[in-house]
Amino acid sequence: MSYFLFLDESGQDRREAPYEVLAGVSVQDTELWNLIQRIHSLEDDLFGMRITEGRMELKGKKLLKRKTFRHAGQLEPLKFHERTALACSCLQKGQSEDPAVRQSVSQKELTALAQAKIDFVSQILEVCSQHRARAFASIVSKEAEKPEKNDFLRKDYAYLFERFYYYLEDKASEPMGVVVFDELEKSRCHLLVNQMEEYFLKTTKGRMRSSRIVPEPFFVHSDLTTAIQLADLVAYITSWGVQVGNMEAPARKELKPLAEKVCQLRYKALRTINDQDDFTVWSFAVFDDLRPKEEA
């Protein structure tokens, strides 16, 4: 038995997003295909068509941008079947090669599509919970100092792997964890592979955690991998809507219901730390400094 950890990032440019987030969604191998099929069914039910068969991905910045909520609030909530038909019409017009057709989208169609997008993400998070998926995140302040050298695995990655290890360690079946990243530019992929090898094979904690986590990651294209897109949604909602620990940046109020569902996917581990029994370790960690102790 294995557990996949699908990883993606949000807010890495440190511009508009209040936090830089590395997020992961873990799914048991026997649950993965069922979860993916249910998400595909949701697409048909809510949009009247598969929206990810073409170029569109389940990306937070596309599905949950502020304009989506503005459009959704233009009218009262539409009835389900009417909303689906209007959302499908809106999508089909938007894909037309005829500019006149694209410009003929009505206010009601735009509203229906926006309402469907928000409902879609909400139901995806519920489906993740039903399939016992768990969310992990390292949340980094925009002002956080970064290490000068990149020889070692960065703190936010190390802490996320630690939380994933605790999650796997609590499983009686002694499963292995497989890390799957959204493909980065090749030089960054090589760097991350080298950093993970240094961490898992050459540090005491890393060697211990390699008993549960395969040290070499896999890289996939996000537009072809549904579960990576789930990690993107978690990363986006966490960056803009979640408030845990010492997160002080204001969250977007309209994202609160979705942020609460993301927080319900967190994993709570209990460990003995600094002689304190049953110390709570959540799968979300917040950082205001990424430098190692000696550098800080």
Which terms would index this structure?
296 residues, alpha/beta, 6-stranded mixed sheet, two-stranded antiparallel ribbon, 11 helices, elongated
Summarize the structure.
The protein has 296 residues and is α/β, with parallel strands linked by helices. 46% of the residues lie in helices and 20% in strands.
Task: Describe it.
The radius of gyration is 20 Å and the shape is elongated. The chain has one domain. The protein is an alpha/beta fold and 296 residues long. The chain is built from eleven helices and eight strands. The chain has helices at 29-47, 60-63, 66-72, 80-94, 99-102, 107-130, 155-169, 186-202, 204-209, 226-241, 256-264; strands at residues 2-10, 19-28, 134-145, 176-182, 218-220, 268-273, 276-282, 284-289. The chain starts with a strand and ends in a 7-residue tail after the last strand. The strands form two sheets. A six-stranded mixed beta sheet has the order 5-4-1-2-3-8, with helices on both faces. A two-stranded antiparallel ribbon has the order 6-7.
Low-confidence stretches: none
Global Rg: 20 Å
> What order do the helices and strands follow?
EEHHHHHHEHEHHEHHEEE
What is the typical, i.e. mean, pLDDT? 92
The total count of strands amounts to 8
- Helical stretch count? 11
Number of domains: 1
Shape category: elongated
Strand ordering within the main sheet: 5-4-1-2-3-8
Q: Main sheet?
A: 6 strands, mixed
Strand proportion, as a percent range, falls in 15-25%
> What structural class do the secondary elements suggest?
alpha/beta
The level of helicity is 40-55%
Beginning-to-end CA distance, first to last residue? 40 Å
